[in-house]
Amino acid sequence: MNRVHLAIAATCFAVAVVGTVAAWQTSPAMAQEAFAGSWDVVNVQPAPWTQGNSPDKPSVNEEIARGRITFMPDSVQGPDFLNCDKAKYEIAKVPPEFLFQGGLTDPVRQAKELGFTGGDILQLSMGCISGDADIGMDFDLINEDTAVFALDNMIYTMKRVNP
Fold it and tell me: Which helix (H) or strand (E) holds 85?
């Protein structure tokens, strides 16, 4: 291959890679797949913003603390109010400052303490209208098999259930 052919091949490869990355970042269906499947809640801890003299008191939901949450393309199966027959998903890459609706008091440090390795975090926002309830919940991916969410001033850690 001469240099012109090599340059054309490199340019085509770069365009293909950028196009693939851009499609992944903007495709709700593909992004939801990062969370697709079943997850078991394996740990519950008070949220960092409840430390010290905070008036926010943590409250554990025992059913969710022992629960399994399954994300399907259009629905969620889970304990209590997390059950949703018509789920709507949005996906975003967010900085630590956006975790738990901005509730972390020292986002970078506390995100690392929770297991995040730095940089933007893949966040799945699940919305559901079920009967009279309008439910919204964010799930944040620590790694391929670990995710967290906050509820009632508690941080719930989930591990992916391998088939």
Answer: none
Domain ranges of the chain: 1-27, 34-160
Whether residue 163 is predicted with pLDDT greater than 80 in this model: the reply is no
CB count, 10 Å around CB of 151?
Answer: 20
- Angle subtended at Cα 115 by Cα 110 and Cα 121, rounded to the nearest 5 degrees: 85
- 24 pLDDT more than 70: no
pLDDT score at 18 = 35
CA distances from 1 to 5, 6, 15, 36, 144 (A): 6, 6, 20, 44, 40
Q: Tokens 């799930």 — which residue?
A: 139
Beta-bridged to residue 137, according to DSSP, are 126
Averaged pLDDT for residues 120-145:
88
Partnered with residue 45 across adjacent β-strands are 155
- Nearest 10 degrees: CA dihedral of 30, 110, 117, 42? -60
